[in-house]
Amino acid sequence: MAHLTYTDLTRTQQLLLDAAEKAMASSYAPYSKFNVGAGILTENDAVVTGANVENAAYGSTICGERSALVGAYAQGHRSVKAIAIIGRSEMGPAEKPVAPCGSCRQMLFEAAQGSKKNMEVIFSNTAKSDIIITTINDLLPYGFGPENL
Ligand code: THU
């Protein structure tokens, strides 16, 4: 997997990452103090963003990626082409790209099925100087999806 920097990205990828970065400002993370923003590009080129939302009952926390995903579903979108993810700690910048957790990969896998294309997953460190571009199939090989039911 190649490690890229912001200028290596296409304009569309840059704009999606910028949208994720903007959404990161709305993160509610008083417990971990780790802010995550995500930007989703839907099949019809709409951009929907989300941020992580924590809770005093820690397990009720929702990640930035799923926050963006459920927002997209709630707006009627059923198919996602790409997602960009960025994060930072309030104690300092994330040096390494912020990768989606296992639960988010599972939900992204399902959202990718609508398009029959391999969803692009872009994840970045805070400075946008270390960016990985991969696909959901690479992040979740042999994923369990609607076709398994
Ligand atoms: N978090 C995300 O939002 N996305 C990830 O991919 C990793 C973790 C959030 C959950 C929690 O609010 C905080 O980051 C620390 O785990």
Write up what this structure looks like.
The structure is a single chain. By secondary structure, the protein is of the alpha+beta class. The protein has a single domain (3-140), classed as Cytidine Deaminase, domain 2 (3-Layer(aba) Sandwich). 28% of the residues lie in helices and 26% in strands. The chain contains four helices and seven strands; from the N terminus they run E-H-E-E-H-E-E-H-E-E-H. Strands 1, 2, 3, 4, 5, 6 and 7 form a seven-stranded mixed beta sheet that branches. The longest helix has 14 residues, at 11-24. Bound molecules: tetrahydrodeoxyuridine (THU).
Tell me the major beta sheet.
7 strands, mixed
Number of helices: 4
Low-confidence spans: pLDDT under 50, at least 5 residues?
A: none
CATH superfamily: Cytidine Deaminase, domain 2
Portion in helices: 25-40%
CATH class: Alpha Beta
Task: Summarize model confidence as the mean pLDDT.
Answer: 96
Distance between the termini: 31 Å
Q: Which radius of gyration do the C-alpha atoms yield? A: 14 Å
The secondary-structure element order is: EHEEHEEHEEH
CATH-assigned fold name: Cytidine Deaminase, domain 2
Bound molecules: tetrahydrodeoxyuridine
Number of separate strands: 7
How many structural domains? 1
Structural class: alpha+beta
**Percent of sequence in beta strands:** 25-35%
Task: Specify the CATH architecture.
Answer: 3-Layer(aba) Sandwich
Shape: globular
